Amino acid sequence: MSSKTQTTGHIRRKLPRNPYIKLHKRLVEFSNNAELDPELMLRNEYLRLENMILRGMYFEERERLKFSEEEKIEMASAMSRVRGRSRHKASLLSPAQVIRYSRQSAGKKYVTLFPKKTPNPRIPLKYKEDILRSIINDHPSWNKQQIWNEMQKYFEDIPAFVVYEMLYDMGFWDSQKIVKGLPWKDFIKRFENVTWAGDFFSVDVWTNCGLQTFYTLFFIHLGTQRVFIAGTSNHATSEWVVNMIKDWTAWPEPPFGEDARFLIRDRDRRYTAEVDWYFAQMGMMPKIISPGAPVMNFHAEQFVRKIKHECLSHCIFLSGDALRSVIAAYVEYYNSHRPNSKHNGGCIVEDGTHWQKDGEVKQFGKIPGLTNYYFREGGKKENED
Question: In the chain, where are the structural domains located?
Fold first, then answer.
């Protein structure tokens, strides 16, 4: 009796209700009625395929880092159906690879209607060199450009660098150099007595406002090597140069002399068109050196090396006036007392203290310890004998 009751009571006991049944029904109902984006479905399908291939590559016994040809075609065929911006972002293949492999998967072949260009037969290099040598022998005065133009008559598509490399290997050089006008060395040698060279050099000066850079404009005569200091300023601009040139017009005599005709200068920005115009009004034609060729203005460069090595590099300047006084003293020493190779060991401007044979040796120096000049006081000159 009791056993039956217990069995019956056990059968009638209610099971606990699943709390996710309602949520499952709502999810099924939503999936049946929802409209999915077809592009999103295609992208998900491609990503699933991509993950399967990558997973197979990862768990493969031999490691490989590239897709096989068949895997690329399979991925491209799935990706070619995707449209929009996701086509370029979701793929491991480039857009060009997608197009190429998708065409291979679809078996599409695009055939042009134009006739195919037959490839030129490969011409041996020995044959080209023989023709090149015959051209050189027939025209020994031609340059490389003319030889390349002649080679184009035999080989239409031959580039210039190929011909130039062949000429270089054969040891060929242009027989004539292209020179426009008078060569620079001949110009300096012919017109050195009427030519000046100008340049700037800079010196750092400690002032009340801190460290400042002062620029000095100078000119040197090529024939006599005489140096003329135009000015020194920490604001050396083109306007500053123009103002100095205007001040020279008030002088009784021009600083360059009456016979000055040419001015050699570099490509400094301070030499503007207005500055060149004022020099031309003074009768001096500016001659601009080539870019990156300071050797063309070597007279000015040598003076900069001398004044810095012999004087300015050994001094510390505390004002602009001190710098100007030292530069003026060195220029006076350079023009009057320093031996110059241009004058066979003599000085540029000579006076009674030069070339003395007899007398007591004296020392003279504007800047003691730096610019010393020794001479004999009185006596006879050497040229009098």
Answer: 20-106, 125-169, 186-348, 351-385
Nearest to 169 by CA among 221, 132, 202, 114: 132
What would the pLDDT profile of 66-79 be if each residue is shown by its tens digit? 677 777 777 777 77
Q: What is the CATH number of domain 186-348?
A: 3.30.420.10
- Between 344 and 117, name the one with better pLDDT: 344
* Cβ contact 226:299 at 8 Å: no
Sheet holding 210-221, edge to edge: 227-233, 210-221, 195-207, 262-265, 285-288
pLDDT in tens, 318-376: 999 999 999 999 999 999 888 888 888 788 887 777 777 777 788 777 787 788 878 77
pTM of the predicted structure, to 2 decimals: 0.53
> Quick one: how many helices (H) and strands (E) in the chain?
14, 7
DSSP-derived secondary structure letter, 352 = T
Estimate the share of the chain in helix, then strand, then coil, as percent rounded to the nearest 5. Answer: 45, 15, 40
Structure tokens at 203: 């010196």
Give the tokens for residue 13.
């006991």
Distances (CA, A) of 217 to 122, 231, 235, 238, 339: 64, 6, 12, 11, 23
